[in-house]
Design a protein that fits this description.
5 helices
Length: 136
């Protein structure tokens, strides 16, 4: 079937509506977060053309925007200094951020940005060091 890029497209790229449910959750803050599933999201465009076509096709580029926002807010603090730290250091910081999220605080107290975005940035720093051949 041809992709129609509508809210309830039945193409092979979209997940059947009956397989998913929408759930509402209440985090620790006053806002209500709506956890959406594929049945309530518009289906992805058929042929992504950006730098990361797979990430674009599964709708995850917004998460990378969050990581970019964290990097921008910490540019003065980290800058290029992240490269002088060890892989283990960045892993430990990522785990710390995730632990805070798991304890019910989804936002970093210093920056106001999402803790998972902080953790993701630290993991990207660790991966960057690994790709450069750094030791743990």
């Amino acid at each position: 079937m041809r992709h129609e890029n509508t809210e309830y497209c039945d193409c092979d790229n979209c997940v059947a509506k009956s397989n998913w449910e929408s759930i509402e959750a209440s985090p620790t803050s006053n806002e209500t977060v709506r956890i959406v599933s594929y049945d309530t999201m518009p289906c992805p465009p058929p042929a992504p053309s950006g730098r990361w076509p797979i990430l674009e096709s599964i709708g995850i580029l917004g998460a990378l925007d969050e990581v970019e926002a964290v990097a921008a807010s910490n540019a003065d603090k980290h800058g290029r200094k992240w490269i002088t730290k060890t892989i283990s250091h960045h892993d430990a910081k990522a785990i710390k951020h995730l632990g805070t999220v798991q304890c019910g605080e989804p936002f970093d107290h210093e920056t106001g940005k999402r803790g998972r975005a902080h953790a993701a940035l630290r993991l990207l720093m660790a991966l960057g060091l690994e790709l450069l051949g750094a030791k743990r």
